[in-house]
Amino acid sequence: MEKEASPSEVGYHTYWNKRANRLVGKRIVSATYMTEEMAKDMGLDWWENSTVVLLMDDGTIVFASSDDEMNQCGVLFAYEANGTEIPMPRIPLKE
Predict the structure, then answer these.
(1) Helices (H), strands (E): how many in the chain?
(2) Could you say which of 5, 29, 33, 59 has the lowest number of CB atoms within 10 Å?
(3) Does the pLDDT at position 93 exceed 90?
(4) Pick from 86, 84, 23: which is nearest to 58 by CA?
(5) Element (H, E) at 36
(6) pTM
(7) In the chain, at which residue ranges do the beta strands (DSSP E only) sit?
(8) Domain layout of the chain by residue ranges
(9) Contact at 8 Å (CB) between 73 and 65?
């Protein structure tokens, strides 16, 4: 198996866009805020806040983190084609 080139060899945008493009073609089947149970299942039960979790048709999940180490949830931003914002703030994890 050939060794994958590093970000410094191919460029950071090229390297990470290749990974981001793995989402292309997947369809969002659910968009919900992370529950305490979901956080626990992912080992994030120490998070104090919740963020939107996008569930794809193949079981892939997408959510925002505050940083690379997932120290806290992040905020997902979305805008419709007409420019209307779809607000999705952090909310308390516990109801």
Answers:
(1) 3, 5
(2) 59
(3) yes
(4) 23
(5) helix 36-41
(6) 0.88
(7) 28-33, 49-50, 52-56, 61-63, 91-92
(8) 28-92
(9) yes
Burial of 54 (0-12, 13-18, 19+ CB in 10 A): middle
Given a contact cutoff of 8 angstroms between Cβ atoms, the answer to whether 42 and 54 are in contact is no
Encoding tokens for residue 22? 């793995």
pLDDT at 3: 86
> Could you tell me the CA-to-CA distances from 82 to 8, 75, 78, 86 in Å, in that order?
37, 21, 11, 11
Tokens describing residue 70: 């997932």
Q: Give per-residue pLDDT as tens, 63-81.
A: 999 999 999 999 999 999 9
Task: Count Cβ atoms below 10 Å from residue 35 Cβ, excluding itself.
Answer: 14
